[in-house]
Amino acid sequence: MSAPQVSTRRTGGTSRKSLPPMTKQSAIKLLNMVANGRKRPSSINDQQLVPLEPPPGSCLSSPPPGGSSSRCYQSSLRSYSKWSPTEQGATLVWRDLCVYATAGSAGSGDGGVRTGNTQRPSIKRIINNVSGAVTPGTLIALMGSSGAGKSTLMSALAYRTPPGTVVQGDILVNGQPVGPYMYRLSGFVHQDDLFVGSLTVHEHMYFMAKLRLDRRVGHRTIDQTIRDLLERTGLARCARTRIGEAGDGKMLSGGEKKRLAFATELLTKPTLLFCDEPTTGLDSFSAQALVSTLQQLARRGTAIICTIHQPSSQLFSMFDQVMLLAEGRVAYAGRPHDALAFFAQHGHACPPNYNPAEYLIGALATAPGYEQASQRAAHRLCDLYAVSEAAGQRDVLINLEVHMAESGDYRVTEEQHLTRRPHWLHTTLWLTYRALLTVVRDPTVQYKRLLQKIAIALMAGLCFAGTIEPTQLGIQATQGILFILISENTFTPMYAVLSVFPETFPLFMRETKSGLYRTSQYYVANVVAMLPGLVLEPLVFVLIAYWLAALRPTLYAFAVTAIAATLVMNVSTACGCFFSAAFNSLPLAMAYLVPFDYILMITSGVFIHLNTMPAATRWLPYISWMMYANEAMSIAQWDGVTNLTCSTVDDKLPCLRTGHEVLEHYSFDEAHLSLNLWAMVLLYCGFHVLGYLFLWRKTKR
Ligand SMILES: Nc1ncnc2c1ncn2[C@@H]1O[C@H](COP(=O)(O)OP(=O)(O)OP(=O)(O)O)[C@@H](O)[C@H]1O
C-alpha cells in the first residue's frame, strides 16, 4: 500500500473553500435559515435580521416542554463578537475531515510495510472526507456497522485521538479550531469504564468534583450537585457501594458503572458531550432511561454526540439527528425519520415492523461472501448523499461557520481563567487520599504483607536466638542476621511495587490527558500513600527479629539498625517504582530487575570482600544499598567491641579479637556510618526522580 501524504497538523486551512464576501449580519441570517431547514436565499434582506442574543427566558434557560429544542437553539444564534461557548452554547462543525492511523499506533496491529532493509510506516485512512455539524441542544447519534469509524470520528471531534493518529481537516467550535481547551469544555464518556475500584460511588464523585470543579465551590454545593446527579442517573441507592474491580464481591454492575461514568462527566456541566456507546451492556429500559437523560441534557443546551450500536426503534427516534457512517464516509446525516425516506428513495425501503436502525446499518454493512457488492452499495449511498439537498444544506451551515471564523471579529474569551483550578498541593492531597484508601482497603496489599513480615521476623529471630555471642561463630551469626534484616526489606517490597504503574497506567493516562492532574502530582501521591507501610513494616520486622536474636542490646545499635532497615525498604521501593515506570509490563520489568538483584546481593559485602573485586566492577558497590545498609548495621554492632574470643579447638577459624578487626575483615570502616545513611537517602531520591521522568515521558508519547 502506498502511504498517502498527509499533513501532521491536527486542523488547518488547506481545504478551506473561499466564499464570497458577506456581512456578518447577512451570514447570521443565512445561518439561521439553513438551521431551520430552508434553502439558501438568492438575496438577503437586512430588514429581516433576527436578534443575535437569545432573549431572557428563551430555550437556553428554559426549554419548551416537549418542543424540539434543537430547533429552538438553532434559531437562537450566538453573538459573534466574542468566543464563549459555555455562555452561548457550542456549535461544532467539521469539514473535509480525514483521520489516518499510522503503523504501530494503538490498535493498528502492524508494524508497517517492509521494503528491502527499511521499514516504511504504513498509514491507514479511517475517516474519509467527512463533514458535519452539531448545534447546541442537539442529540446526535453516530451509527454504522462495526469498524465504520464511529469511535475514530468521535475521538477526533473531541480532540482525544490516540497517539499515532493524524487528523486532517477543519474542526471548529464556535469558529475556533479545536485544541486542548476541549478537555475543559467537553465531557467524554468512554466505551470502557476505568475507575479506582476501592472507592464508593460517592467518594469517587466527591474526588472528581474536588479535582474538576472550581476550587471556590464549597462542600455543600458539591454534595448537593452529587446528590442531584446520582438521582438523575439512578445511582442514588448505590452511593455507598464500592465501585469494585472484576472479581470483587461488592461491586457495581456494568450498567451502573456506565451511569457513573456519565454522572462523572456531567459534574462540570459540559457544553459538548461525547458518549462512546453509552447504552452498550444496558437492558432496553436502562438504555432508554439513559438516552432520555441525554435528551433532557440536550434540552438545557448541551450538544451531545453518541456512537450507538443498533438502537431499538424507540431509542432511534429519540435522537434529534443521526449520522450514518460506512467505511469512514457519511452515508446520511439528518433527522432519523428523513434517513428512512432517503434510503427508501434509493431502493432501500425499510420493511414494516422492522427495526429501522438495524435496517439502515444492515444496508451499509459488508455482508460476508458479498463483500464487493455490499461495499459498492454502501459507496453508492455515500455518493448519493454527498450530492443530496440535505448535504447541501449542511455544507452551507458548515461553510458559514468557517466563513464567520475567518472574517468575524472574534474576541476570544479566555474562559479557562474564569475557572479557578485547584492548587498543586490540593490536588496532590486528594490524589494521596485516593491512593491511601486503595492501600487501606486492599488487604492483600497491606495487612497480609504485615502478617507475613511478622511471621518471617519470628522465624528468623528464633533461628538465631542464642547464637549471637562474642566468639568467632557469633561474628558469623551476627552478619547472617544482619543480611536477613536487609534482604527481607529489599526483595519483597521491590517486587511488590512493580505492578503499581503498569496496573493503573490506563486510568492514569486517561486522567492526565483530560487535565485532571499532572504526572508529578500522581507520582508524589503514590509515594506518599506508600510511606506509612514502608515505615511500619521494617520497624515491626526489626523490633521482633533484633530482640529475639539478641543483637547488641544498646539503644544506639538498635536505632541505627531500625533506621537503616527503614531506608533499605524505602530505597528498594523507590527502585521498584523506577522499574515499574520504566517498563510497560510486569514481566518486562521483572526481566530487567532480576539481574539487578544479583548485583545488589553480590556487592552487599557478605559474599565477597569488596576490595578483592575486579577493578572493572569496583564501582558496583556504590549503587548497592545492601552494601550501605550492611556497613551501617555492622558498624552499629561492632564499633567499640573489644572482647571477642578465638577458638582454642579449631585453629582453622579466623581469629578476630575486636570489632575494628571484624569491620576491616568485611572491608567496612567505622567512619562511614552517616555516609552510608546519606547514600541511601540519595539513592531513594535518585530512583524516584528517574521513576517520575520515565512516567512523565510516557504521557508525552
Ligand atoms: N490505530 C489504528 N490503527 C489501524 N486501524 C485502526 C486504528 N484505529 C481504528 N482502526 C480501524 O479503523 C476502523 C474503524 O475503527 P473504529 O473503532 O472507529 O470503528 P467503530 O465504528 O467505532 O467500530 P465498533 O462499533 O466496532 O466500535 C476499524 O477497521 C479499525 O480496525
From TrEMBL:
PROSITE patterns: ABC_TRANSPORTER_1 (PS00211), ABC_TRANSPORTER_2 (PS50893)
Region of interest (Disordered), residue spans: 1-73
One of the record's GO cellular component terms: plasma membrane
Membrane topology note: Multi-pass membrane protein
InterPro entries named in the record: AAA+_ATPase (IPR003593), ABC2_TM (IPR013525), ABC_transporter-like_ATP-bd (IPR003439), ABC_transporter-like_CS (IPR017871), ABCG_dom (IPR043926), ABCG_transporters (IPR050352), P-loop_NTPase (IPR027417)
Location in the cell: Membrane
Biased composition (Pro residues): 52-66
Keyword Membrane: yes
Record-annotated membrane-spanning stretches: 480-501, 522-549, 555-579, 591-610, 675-695
Signal peptide: none
UniProt-listed CDD domains: ABCG_EPDR (cd03213)
The organism's place on the tree of life at top rank: Eukaryota
Entry keyword Protein biosynthesis: no
GO function terms (MF aspect): ABC-type transporter activity; ATP binding; ATP hydrolysis activity
Protein name in the entry: ABC transporter domain-containing protein
